[in-house]
Amino acid sequence: MAIMTEKTNMPFQVKDCTIITRMAGVETAVNLREMRERIAISPIECLFHHFCETLIRPTFDDPEFRNDLAVWSNRQLRDRVLAERLGIINPYSLDNFEQLRELVLEILDERLSELVYIPWVPRGNDFRFMMAVTVVFDSGITLVTPDDLVDQLPNFSHSSIYYHFIEARRRTPDKADDFSAWLVGFGSGTEHFLNALKGIDFCYLTLPELKQTLIEAFRGAKLETANDHQITRSI
Amino acid sequence: MTTKSLVAYENVVGHVAISQLRQLARDLAGARVVHVNSTKTGGGVAEILRWLVPLMNDLGLEASWEIIEGHNGFFNTTKTLHNGLQGSPVALPQSMINIYEETVAANADRLRPILETADFVFIHDPQPAFLLSLCPNRKGKWIWRCHIDVSHPNRKVWLYMKKLASGFDASIFSMPAFAQRLDHPQFIVAPSIDPLSEKNRELPQQEIDATLDHFAISKKLSILTQISRFDRFKDPVGVIRAFNMLNSSVDAQLVLAGGGATDDPEGAAVFEEVQDAAQGNDRIFVLMLPDDAPRTINALQRASAIVIQKSLQEGFGLTVAEAMWKSKPVIGGNVGGIRLQVHNHHTGFLVDTPEGAALRIREMLRQPVKIEEMGKTAKEFVTHNFLLTRHFREYLTLMLGLRRGLENYLVAV
Question: Interface pTM (ipTM) of the complex?
Answer without folding.
Answer: 0.90
